[in-house]
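[retry 2/3] Desiccation-related protein PCC13-62: previous attempt timed out, resubmitting with same input.
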Amino acid sequence: MLTYLTSAIFTCLFLAVPTTKGHNPSLPQSDVNLLEFPLNLEYLEAEFFLFASLGYGLDQVAPNLTGGGPPPIGGKMANLDPRTRDIVLQFAYQEVGHLRAIKNTVKGFPRPLLDISADNFAKIINDALKQTLNPPFDPYANRLNYLLASYIIPYVGLTGYVGANPKLQSAQAKRLVAGLLGVESAQDAVIRTLLYEQPLQKVKPYDITVADLTDRISKLRNTIGKQGLKDEGLIVPLELGAEGKISGNVIAGDRDSVAYDRSPEEVLRIVYGTGNESVPGGFLPKGGGGQIARSYLS
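[retry 2/3] Desiccation-related protein PCC13-62: success.
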């Protein structure tokens, strides 16, 4: 009888212990860190796409995923045609799913402070062109500007996932990253394809074409990433095209058309816009969240 009662008590106590959603003790800590790090990019993409398509962000769409983090700076609805708005809204809801998928696997961290203001994008474009545009570039002004601004973001996350995959130890983490990478790659391909439809169009009111601006953005990311060629515009020299036989470059890849990879340090250098993983700025003015990003902040 005593044995039965003891067993029953332990069973009740076990069932009464609360479980923490997103905490997976079976994952190696290194996998946890690598899965949490891309939340920085997923938060950024979710807010940028949500605000552009709906005029509001995660605080209205999925407040449970913000972790109480501060609202983003400068988000607003973009001036988009119905078809483009529909595509961007699809991206937005996909990013909500990505946040949930990661947080269902690891604990994660609250949304960091994000700067998705027109001023921040204008600075990035100025840095890419090495001149100050007048009037300043406004990502929310029209369809073309918004697509060019979108060119700036998902590809960085894509290369980060490629870089993380070989470092992961568990099958669960590898499966999640592979699934996230597949959708991020598709988003980037859609953005590049829409821009490739008009490579020689001038980005009004400036004297620069779509192809030239994507090339300058890619060169900027290569420069501040500090690890050589890992980024390519829509039109490239023949030797950089697929099999060295074509200049069109709707999907970027190395000499074997394999996706480029980036380390967390490279990703931070680019999203901070400072070229230094220890100096926040850009999209993350107070730095990224998670163990990897925080380890570089003093």
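[retry 2/3] Desiccation-related protein PCC13-62: The CA atoms of residues 11 and 17 lie 10 Å apart.
[retry 2/3] clearing retry counter.
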